[in-house]
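Fold this sequence, please.
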Amino acid sequence: MTTTTDAPVRFDTKIAVLLREDLETWQRLNVTAFLVSGLGHELPEVIGEPYADADGTPYLPMFRQPVLVFEGTKETLAAAHARVLSRSLPRALFTADLFTTGNDRDNRAAVRAVGRDQLDLVGLAVYGPRNAVDKVLKGARMHP
């Protein structure tokens, strides 16, 4: 007998990362990790409960829902950036300049030094209602 607690959970929200298609594998992984790291800080509702194994060893909590990863051209990323700003959705960005800095302070300074429309975006994370996130990601494709 199946109970309602066994039913799959369908989220009304979506966490998505959009990566520029010309990134190397190590860059894709690094950018994705950096981008999603800010979501839990600003949006504690995206974080689930802590984990523990059968021996009682504690582990940190993680996102309570999947993170979907997409890719697109530089132009797709620029369009998504404009749409996420117009919709005022929570977002994080990663620019090409951040590959050359070595610390958090310099990362923020590198972003601050460039105007919004001139940012050399390589990654964008967004969180919000599913339909709104889907509209932001228009033209992007799921990462293979």
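Residues 25-42 form the longest helix (18 residues). Helices lie at 25-42, 74-86, 104-112, 130-136.
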